[in-house]
Specification:
- It contains seven helices and nine strands.
- The protein has a five-stranded parallel β-sheet with strand order 2-1-6-5-7. Strands 3-4 form a two-stranded antiparallel sheet.
- Helices cover 29% and strands 17% of the residues.
- By secondary structure, the protein is an alpha/beta fold.
- A hairpin with a 2-residue loop joins strand 8 and strand 9.
- Helix 2 packs parallel to helix 4 and helix 3 packs across helix 5.
- It is elongated and about 70 Å long.
- 21% of the residues are buried.
- It binds 6-chloroguanine.
- 6-chloroguanine (6GU) binds next to strand 5 and strand 7.
- Keywords: Cytoplasm, Methyltransferase, S-adenosyl-L-methionine, Transferase, tRNA processing.
């Protein structure tokens, strides 16, 4: 998989050299390219932002550097890969980034990320990317809070996606039994020692009774999901119009 990231803080993406992703790059499974948006400016001050039309707080990222940066990225197409990247734009106004979306992105041969800063990117850049470059654009949010820019989100998204790319994780089985793969959170886990600071490992885990262990773990997953993420158990009552009279 090829990954291009455009940012005004390319150093922010240096963790992509580390750990599992660094290893996957060394192994040739990921081909990561980070680009500095300011390299696509033409003025002495390398300006990437300007004031918003219509007024309002903060600054807006100018369309011109973004258009040239995205054109440059799109021109990197290397015949064996498919012709166009899928463009992911992290932002608090995006669709929720979920494990399902991570799986979808992991199946793409080429992803490009546009890291916005300030109040965001001039809306016409999205139209340009779709209409003139012919790329699919997805605005994606990590959750209902605001970050200063897309860089940290790209680190999270790339990590979630890369580990689903075949070969990146040695033990593919470890991918199946995970929170968010089947709609329940993971059960609690323990390792040695059996007694630690006056606390014991739950007896059932020492029993050797595999059916009892499976049953206990399932109950723990349900209880934990109900306590921490009730929305996962009752998805129909979240994010939709709920009839308040009938909702329980
Ligand atoms: Cl993906 N980007 C930014 N800038 N803020 C966020 C976010 C993304 N997700 C939640 N807040």
């Amino acid at each position: 998989m090829r990954i291009d990231v455009v940012s005004i803080f390319p150093d922010y993406l240096s963790p992509l050299d580390l750990s599992l992703i660094g290893k996957a790059r060394q192994d040739g499974l990921l081909d990561v390219h980070v680009h500095d948006l300011r390299d696509f400016t033409h003025d002495r001050h390398r300006t990437v932002d300007d004031t918003p039309y219509g007024g309002g707080a903060g600054m807006v990222m100018k369309p011109q550097p973004w258009a040239e940066a995205l054109e440059h990225v799109a021109a990197q197409a290397d015949p064996p890969t498919t012709k166009r990247p899928r463009l992911v734009v992290p932002g608090p106004g995006g669709a929720p980034f979920t494990q399902a979306l991570a799986r979808e992105l992991a199946a793409e041969p080429w992803l490009a990320f546009a890291c916005g800063r300030y109040e965001g990117i001039d809306e016409r850049v999205y139209e340009f990317a779709r209409e003139d470059l012919g790329v699919d654009v997805s605005v994606v949010s990590l959750g209902d809070y605001v970050l200063n820019g897309g860089e940290v989100a790209v680190l999270a998204i790339v990590e979630a996606v890369a580990r689903l790319v075949p070969g990146v994780i040695g033990n593919a089985e470890s991918l199946v039994e995970e929170s968010h793969e089947d709609g329940l959170l993971e059960y609690p886990i323990y390792t040695k020692p059996r007694e630690w600071r006056g606390r014991s490992v739950p007896e059932v885990l020492l029993s050797g009774n595999h059916a009892a262990i499976a049953q206990w773990r399932h109950e723990q997953r349900l209880a934990r999901t109900a306590a921490r993420r009730p929305d996962l158990l009752h998805p129909s009552s979240v994010g939709q119009d709920v009839d308040v009279a009938t909702a329980v």
